[in-house]
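Consider this:
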Amino acid sequence: MTVSYSRAVMVVDVARILDEHFARPDTDPGDLVGRFDNIYVPNRPNEQVTAAAVRAGDRVRTTGRWRARRRRSGWRSA
């Protein structure tokens, strides 16, 4: 049986992944590498994803900067 998820369900998955990641204070930004490979990530503002980012506080900005610095050399490089 093939399970087909709606985009709304996948957006909830994105928010859940972010919540799980940022709930642990010992996580590294690189721990998110590959976590979104098979999940629809909206390219427009989304309430659930925004709420997860707000709950994470300043760590979101640090993680975003980490990601932006590695964009030039590829996402998978540490």
Q: What stands out?
A: Residues 7-71 form one domain. The chain has a mean pLDDT of 82. Residues 30 and 53 are 17 Å apart (CA to CA).
